TrEMBL record:
Protein name according to UniProt: Mitochondrial amidoxime reducing component 2-like
PROSITE patterns: MOSC
Secretion signal span: none
GO MF, one example: molybdenum ion binding
One family name in Pfam for this protein: MOSC
TM annotation in the entry: 20-39
């Protein structure tokens, strides 16, 4: 009796039948998975509509600070890397003054560091300071120079020693205990911003900045502060990477995602200010009071954020880099609105 499957009926009750059913089930599952992926992709595309760009300002100045706490370099354009601004061989805070035991030294301890000017000539870092002969040292250091273990804000990081000549130069200028200069190299392990402030992402990394690759301040915020001060301060007191004009005071605090040139950045936290802001950038004298006291009178955080900022006043906003590229003075600043 042949049945509905004809003469093949009896054979399909054996191993071949199981194989065919398994193949059919696999095909059905594949179709279902494909349909699910298509629907999920369509849903994601609906959720990720192209951001609407709202112009909020213009880049008026760009600054790179090659040696932490030394004078910044104003540049017309800069590459924005995941670890901060770069102009030629100069990378933001890739050099650090340390004690002989590796602990960082900044203008908080040695305010006259702000008088050290930094440049780059023919592959050399060029240092100059009042009363000192200019000094040059290679950006790419000899491999024989030792790698030192350093300590910043309780975190370990390495740096290659820049040699005895520059160590003596810095120590002589500051009239201090012996100090060294170290350089962060690309093969070294950066610090995680999240280890300093938990609101950063695990992918946000820095060399020797306090915690963030990019700091942005608006001209209106500085103007607002100066209306409250008897003695005006400069933007150099606050050491931003990007200075923006054309927005209202402290509007930068509200920027979550921005586009400048080809660079996309994400706002993370505001910058909590310390006595470094009270160092006069022209004289290297530490005031310890202004503009910090005035900022404390009106720029403290909301009580709900005290676990982040404690009692420090806020001035400027930190940004992490989502998409690298180039920016230049005059670029529009856009807020990305979903």
């Amino acid at each position: 009796m042949s049945g509905p499957w004809g003469a093949a009926g009896p054979a399909l009750r054996g191993p071949r039948a199981g194989w065919l059913w398994a193949a059919a089930a696999a095909l059905a599952l594949g179709a279902l998975l494909g349909a699910w992926r298509w629907a999920a992709g369509r849903s994601r595309r609906r959720q990720r509509r192209p951001a609407r760009l709202q112009r909020v300002g213009t880049v008026s100045s760009l600054f790179v600070y090659p040696v932490k706490s030394c004078r910044g370099v104003a540049v017309p354009r800069a590459q924005v890397t995941p670890m901060g601004l770069q102009s030629g061989e100069l990378r933001d805070r890739f050099w650090l003054v340390t004690k002989e035991d590796g602990h960082m030294v900044t203008a908080r301890q040695e305010p006259r560091l702000v008088l050290v000017s930094v440049g780059c000539e023919n592959g050399c870092l060029a240092l100059s300071a009042p009363g000192m002969e200019p000094l040059r040292l290679p950006v790419r250091l000899p491999r024989k120079n030792p790698v030192r273990n350093c300590r910043l804000f309780g975190l370990d990081i390495q740096g290659r020693d820049c040699g005895d000549e520059v160590a003596r130069w810095i120590t002589t200028f500051l009239n201090s205990e012996p100090y060294r200069l170290v350089h962060f190299e690309p093969s070294m392990v950066p610090r995680k911003s999240k280890d300093v402030i938990d609101l950063f992402r695990t992918t946000d990394e820095v060399a020797y900045p306090d915690c963030s690759p990019v700091l942005i301040i608006s001209e209106a915020s500085l103007d607002d502060l100066n209306t409250r001060l008897e003695k005006k301060v400069k933007i150099q007191n606050f050491r931003p990477n990007i200075f923006v004009t054309g927005c209202s005071a402290f509007e930068e605090d509200t920027w979550e995602e921005i586009l400048i040139g080809s660079v996309e950045m994400k706002g993370t936290v505001c910058c909590a200010r310390c006595i470094l802001t009270t160092v006069n950038p022209d004289t290297g004298v530490l005031d310890r009071k202004e503009p910090l006291e005035t900022l404390k009178s009106y720029r403290l955080c909301d009580p709900s954020e005290r676990h982040i900022y404690k009692s420090s006043p806020l001035f400027g906003r930190y940004f992490a880099v989502d998409k690298t590229g180039t920016i230049q003075v005059g670029d529009p600043v856009y807020k990305m609105v979903q």
